[in-house]
Structures are given as structure tokens and as C-alpha cells.
Amino acid sequence: AQSVAQPEDQVNVAEGNPLTVKCTYSVSGNPYLFWYVQYPNRGLQFLLKYITGDNLVKGSYGFEAEFNKSQTSFHLKKPSALVSDSALYFCAVRERGDDKIIFGKGTRLHILP
Amino acid sequence: DADVTQTPRNRITKTGKRIMLECSQTKGHDRMYWYRQDPGLGLRLIYYSFDVKDINKGEISDGYSVSRQAQAKFSLSLESAIPNQTALYFCATSDGTKLETQYFGPGTRLLVL
Fold first, then answer.
1. A77: closest CA among A103, A95, A59?
2. Which of B43, B59, B100 has the CB atom closest to A90's CB atom?
3. Confidence class of residue A77 from pLDDT cuts 50, 70 and 90?
4. Bridge-partner residues for B103, per DSSP?
């Protein structure tokens, strides 16, 4: 069965520093991988996805993620954090041929001014 | 996302009551989903529907039922609410062809006393 893990409940980063939010996954076959962001009192918003091709995926708001098949990881990154990046981030995986997307438990990102 | 709306936004009910949460979308998507969000547990899939005649159970369907009244409408019912159904409920849609970006509604916060 497919699964996704976000090992950190919370990540604190100073504004202007690079940030990384970690995600690892487990699927039997090839994965589709996603990152979503949730701002307070809002639904989730799509950030980026990996389907195939280039392992480095660029998304909204300057975020990017790198698909690493050998480490089964899809970490979210941004070179320079903004206070407005503070939110709850969800990694998600879908196994090719499966109907459902499985979400991680979320990582709360705090960007400190 | 204003294209996916949920009503009500907040609801307080008592144990044993039947309640319905409604979701409407103007995106023209065939696929619709219901999730619940609990702190520390992330999003868990309750039910999903790929068209009006297709309803599927998700990870945690017990105690819930759904109705897909039209392509644009997907309702979630709690037949007899219990306190551990207190959560934030999200509806989402996707078109199934763009693998597989989901668009979320703003959520319904439900409190079962």
C-alpha cells in the first residue's frame, strides 16, 4: 500500500534563509508526487507536482522539489524564505494505476522575521 | 478556491443528530472527494466519486454516507453524529486528466457535542 511520511511536525527558519520541508514515500510502482499548502482558515492549495521527466520540479511562489527515486524522497525547498511562507504544508502521493491520493500528516512551517 | 464552495462553513450539532455537508463546484470536473482533517493526522479520504454513478469508499467511510446529486454537487452525511467526528471537512475536485491536481473548498468546521 502506498504511504507518505513527513518526519517533521514543525520547521522553523529565519527569513531570508533557505528552507527544506521533508517528505518520503512508499509505493509499489512509480509515483505521482504533490505538495500542497494550507494557509489559516483556508483549503489546501496546489504548489507543485512530479509526474515524470526532470527530477527538479518548480512550482508556485518560488518553491521547488526534487524527486529522488533512490531515497524515495520528494523534499520541498525554497532558496530564501519569506514570512508569508508560514503555513501548513502537505506532501501527497498517488501510485500510478491507483485512484486515490494519500496525504502526509503535514508540516507546519514557521518563518521567523 | 472560489470555484469549490462548501456549506455550511461552521456547524455545531449534538450526538445522534443527522447532518449534511454540501459541496458545489463550477470547475466542470468529474471527480469529487471528501476528506477530513484532524490535527496530527493530516487529511484522510472519506469518499470519492468519479462521476454521478460512481461512488467509492475511502480510508475512513464508516459513519458517513455521500450523495452525488449532479456533476457539480457532492454531499456528505453523518447519519448519527458522534463526538469523534468533530473535525475540519474538505471537499475537493479534480478533472482526472491532469494527474492529478486537486482543488479544495474552504472547509467546514464541525463540532459534535
1. A59
2. B43
3. very high
4. B93
Mean pLDDT of successive 10-residue stretches along chain B, which has 113 residues:
88 96 94 92 92 92 95 96 96 78 93 97
What residue of B is the nearest CA neighbor of A40?
B106
**C-alpha cell belonging to residue A51:** 509526474
Picking from A101, A102, A107 by the largest number of B CB atoms within 10 A of its own CB, the best residue to mutate is A101
- Give 3-state DSSP helix, strand, coil % of chain A, rounded to 5: 5, 55, 40
Nearest CA in chain A to B49: A99
pLDDT score of A62 more than 70: yes
- Say if A25 is an interface residue toward chain B (CB within 8 Å): no
On the question of pLDDT at A84 being above 60, the answer is: yes
**Which of B42, B48, B92 is closest, CB to CB, to A106?**
B42
